[in-house]
Structures are given as C-alpha cells and as structure tokens.
Amino acid sequence: MTVPDFKTIRRDLHKIPELGFQEHKTQKYLMDYISTLPSHRYELKKWKTGLFVKVAGTEPTRTIGYRADIDGLPIREETGLDFQSDHVEKMHACGHDFHMSIALGVLTHFVQHPIEDDLLFIFQPAEEGPGGAQPMLDSDEMKRWMPDAVFALHIAPEYEVGTVAVKEGLLFANTSELFIKFKGKGGHAAYPHQTKDMIVAASYFVTQLQPIVSRNVDPLDSAVITIGKMESGTVQNIIAETATLEGTIRTLSPESMNSVKSRLEALIQGMKISYDCDIEVDYGSMYQQVYNDPEWTKDFISFVETTDNRNLVICKEAMTGEDFGYMLEKIPGFMFWLGVNSPYGLHHSKLNPEEEAIDFAISLMTEYFETLNVKTK
Ligand SMILES: CC(=O)N[C@@H](CCC[C@H](N)C(=O)O)C(=O)O
C-alpha cells in the first residue's frame, strides 16, 4: 500500500466541518479512509458520531491510547483558501482537521508496522461543546479497551512548525460555559419609565462581571470571564423585553471556579432587585482541567530533547479548555501543543496553520510510540 498524502486528507476534512455530535460526514470520511487499510489489523467501533479504532499489537501487554477531536466551530471562514469550508457558518478553526489527519497518519503507520502493544485511536466528537470525552469514557467500548496511557496534541498557532510545547501538571484550565437570560418589560422607546429595559440591564451586568476577576480571585490564581455573545432587541425605537448573554468562565483551580460562580450568582440577585427583572443562569457544559501526568510528560520531554530537528518549549499553562482533561483524570498521559505558525489564532475566521506540521507530528508520534514499545521489552 502506498502511503497517502495526509495534507490532502486534511484539506478534505477542512471542507466539511460539523458541530458537536453532528459529525456524520466526518465520521463517514474517517471510516471510508480506514476501510482502505488491511482489515485484519484493526477493529473499529462507531460511537455516536465518533469512532474507536483498536490496532492490534504483535504481543500486547498494554494498550496505548491516542485521541483526536473531530468537531468544528460555528464560524464563517474567511481564509480565502481554495479548500475553504463547504459548510455555511462552520469552520475547522481549532485545528481538529489537523488533529484527525495526524491521527490517521499514525494509525496507518501502525497498521502497516505494528508494535508489540495494542493501540487505541479515539476519534472524539464535540470537544468544543457539549463534550464527548466524558460520555466516551463511560461507553462500553472504552471500558472494554481501556488504555493504560493516553496522549493527544493541540495545534498552537503561536509556535513555529517543528516546535513541541508542553509542561508537567496543569496545562489547560477548568472551564464552564455560561448562558444568562434576562426578562423585563418591553415598550415604546419614548416611554422608558413604563418599561424594564433589558439592554441596559444586560450591558450593566457585563461590566459588573469584570471585577469578579480583578477583585474576588486571588491574583496568583488566574480566572477569565468572557462574554462571547449578546443578543437583545428588535428595532431602534422599541425597548427590549429580553436579553441573552453567552460566555465562558476559566479558572486555574477548581476551587476558584466555585467561588467565581458564587460571586456571579450574588450579582444576579442584586441585578434582579436593581432592574426589577427575572434572570436565569445555566452553566452548560463544564470541563475538567488538563493535568499532564508528570512521569509520562518527563518521558516525552526527554524523548523530544534527544531527537533531531525538534524544538522543545517548556510552556506555561493556558486558559484554554479541553475535555481531554476527563481522560487524563482517569488515565495517565499528557497533551502537548504542536507549533503550526499561523498569524491568526485559534477560533479566528482566518486561522491558517502550516501543513508541514502534519508530517512532523506523524513522525513525532510514531517514533515516540516505537520508543515506548522498546521500553516494554
Ligand atoms: C482548545 C479550545 O479552544 N477549547 C475550547 C473548549 C470549549 C469548552 C466550552 N465550550 C467553553 O466554552 O467553556 C475553548 O474554548 O477553550
């Protein structure tokens, strides 16, 4: 079998981004590709819109897990690339097209050149929300094929291709989504005294959230509250009866997440009195922090250091979230950042990672897994 071009595979996947638990075309694409590999070397199980693929080892004593997330984001792509998204208002703006093609590359290698250990490839839906990692962990397939260690990577636009950035311990933050609904009383723009204006209430609330971070969280224990969406009103001369806010909370410690939410709820009680309105809060999905197992991470760091043409960066923790944190809570392993050098960052409509990072990552991970194989002997 000739080795396929994983950049072409990435471009195919880039054209068909789908939101969490709607990844039907993506799942079919992955399955169609995997079905071209010798079928006696692997076992495949569909799980919702994701996949588990177990590649048989020659004399397995353990199972090594590798996870790639597969969903896209609700963003209108503005890269102008000739393989731009075919799906309106959807884009692979967080690099999951890279994550999938790298996983397919590693999978292909080990189907053709098995190591002693079994390998479990986890193609996970809904990382951007509402979260696929925890339900996958709870699935019968995962219980049957539970890996002894699990690894994943995430593209990093800020680093050059060839860079691996990682750290032991905390890598990504605790996260919670945030959905707030305001209900007041609408009316004529010229008679505000007869209304309860929810544009004024919601705007005030957005500004009141900011001091939670600067005045309630220990400065040495960071937090972020971002409101990414605000919706209200119908036309310029009608006072808005309702308003909705959507956002996310990020904290370095689980304890700070609880205290940020307590402060937010206290503010809401005050707002209800001040603006004489109803306010409902819903936290949506919450993700466990990504905590890299120190032993596995040290092992990976010394592997990267001792190989040529790989630039190792010991990075700081980031306020990004990842439901891979749930896998690392149960199974030792690590996640790392893969340099892709894009002038536009994650979740940007012009994100354009350099595709040379795909082959770099495939050889990085295949060599690393081969090193682990030697260590089991
Ligand atoms: C790596 C990355 O960008 N992950 C997302 C995870 C989103 C979690 C959830 N939907 C939330 O917004 O809290 C991120 O935004 O960090």
TrEMBL record:
A Pfam family it matches: M20_dimer
UniProt keyword list: Amino-acid biosynthesis, Diaminopimelate biosynthesis, Hydrolase, Lysine biosynthesis
Residues annotated as domain Peptidase M20 dimerisation: 180-269
UniProt keyword S-adenosyl-L-methionine, yes or no: no
SUPFAM superfamilies in UniProt: Bacterial exopeptidase dimerisation domain, Zn-dependent exopeptidases
EC class name: hydrolase
Domain of life: Bacteria
Pathway: Amino-acid biosynthesis; L-lysine biosynthesis via DAP pathway; LL-2,6-diaminopimelate from (S)-tetrahydrodipicolinate (acetylase route): step 3/3
UniProt-listed Enzyme Commission number(s): 3.5.1.47
Reactions accelerated catalytically: N-acetyl-(2S,6S)-2,6-diaminopimelate + H2O = (2S,6S)-2,6-diaminopimelate + acetate
Catalytic residues as annotated in Swiss-Prot or TrEMBL: D69, E128 (proton acceptor)
Family matches, as HAMAP family: DapEL (MF_01692)
Family of the protein in this entry: Belongs to the peptidase M20A family. N-acetyldiaminopimelate deacetylase subfamily.
Function: Catalyzes the conversion of N-acetyl-diaminopimelate to diaminopimelate and acetate.
Protein name per the record: N-acetyldiaminopimelate deacetylase
Organism: Rossellomorea oryzaecorticis
